[in-house]
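Tutorial handout. Part one gives the primary structure; part two gives the three-dimensional structure as tokens.
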Amino acid sequence: MANYTASVSVTGEGRNGGRVQSDDGLLTATLALPKELGGAGDATNPEQLFAAGWGSCFLGALRLAATQRKIRLTSTAIDTKITLVHGDDGFSLAAVLDLEIGGVDQDTVTALAEAAHQICPYSKATRGNIPVTINATAV
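Part two.
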């Protein structure tokens, strides 16, 4: 399998008034500080983009883990929350991944979530660097 490199340019003021655009033009967005941080809150922000990337990657890893184990899932959903934390040492991140998986029992859901956390590149990149909570529920 080949490698893939995503290329995104950010211009302007970065997270407060900047603009992002992928080299293929499929992703374009304006950035703004959220209202909670004193901004206008009228555009997306880096934490939302990170949450979208991690959540979609994690579901892909979950589906892969299920396929490898020959487990049929009836549904998968994830709510990914990325918190920008301001502490004594500056800013850092924390994450909560809330999974709902259908078609299997709670023990299987837990095992698949743990497997996905080992497979997902976002999980690998953040492991040991930020607090991550994974809540996995059978539905």
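Part three, for discussion. The CA atoms of residues 126 and 132 lie 8 Å apart. DSSP finds three helices and six strands in the chain.
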